[in-house]
Amino acid sequence: MTAIPTAPRMTSDVHDTADAGLLLAGATGLVRVNLAAIASNWRALADRVGPARCGAVVKADAYGLGAARVIPALADAGCTAFFIATPGEAESARALLPKADLFALDGLAGDSGETFARLGVTPVLSTLDDVARWSAQARARGVKLPAALHIDTGLNRLGLPARDVRRIASEADLRAGLTLRLVMSHLASADNPADAKNREQLLAFETLTALFPSVPRSLAASDGLMLGSAYHFDLVRPGYALYGGQASQSNPAPVRPAVTVMARILAINDVPRGETVGYSATWRATRPSRIATVAAGYADGVPRSASAPDGRPGGYVMIGDTISPIVGRVSMDLITVDVTDVPPGIARAGEFAKLIGDGLSIEDAGYSAGTIGYEILTRLGQRFERVYIEDAR
User: Fold this and answer.
1) Which of these is catalytic: 59, 231, 298, 354?
2) Each residue's pLDDT tens digit, 222-246
3) Taking the mean position of all CA atoms in its chain, how far away is CA 33?
4) Whether 298 is catalytic
């Protein structure tokens, strides 16, 4: 579908009760976020993993879609555990969620301990230094503070190594003043169910978390929860899947698309065979061509890697029902698209080209640009009008 529907309870974060036609008239680009689909996706994942608890990862402004709108929709659906990354995200989320469980994935960055203590946010502690600082904060305040431990099981990014996990478990003074709310880890290869690393990390996680027998455990995010109940433990942490993402094509999650991105066609030009298009003349027409200039560029989140120089394939957009290639270089504000094969009358100045939506998934957009759908979502620029659909009808 290439038009924004006018129906049920559509609102914009700029014009709260704006008419769809007005938005279409004034916008160079639109990001349509289906909040009802996001809520439905969360419920589907929660049903999938029960009796384990299903949380939601809403860091990076809910993957670029607008945390201020996405978080309440998830809370209304029944979610009570949310994962953010930074102190600023914690402030915003707590204002929306006075009573929910909030976990800060980046741990104690800078002086964030004061913020987390004030807000009642649980930091995810990934180093001995973090554990010591949070314990000191608790003892200085004379209160018990909630904490989550992030243990490394093979990703070798954030996470406590096994020797430090054993120290924390055996030396009570290290965790004095702390109430352990969660022990978690993160899978490196969950998007590939056949990868032996999944099983290796599972076994390492089971071994190390046995040192904390009464503490809830969490291992799986969006793709990990599809590996089966052995990976669910007490809490799963989907993020990308909530927004309709499918990082694992061989083991897809039971979710549906929730995002449509469109940009306006500004002009259609006839380009003779042999002429070049775009900066540095990197693409040359091999036939008489019709080229659409579209109001979207790397400032709006279209990766420059989606460029198609020297005849090599790059990214695509969808005009009507026709997949059309980006040609030449992606620039700051514009892309150029070969619409020669689009049926007459469909590609016109003033109409919209679809960057993500039915027929062109987030994964398609990422793969054709040599990246991943996660990056496509989180880099969506703020110049595009956000439109929110709140009703499933």
Assistant:
1) 59
2) 999 999 999 999 999 999 999 999 9
3) 13
4) no
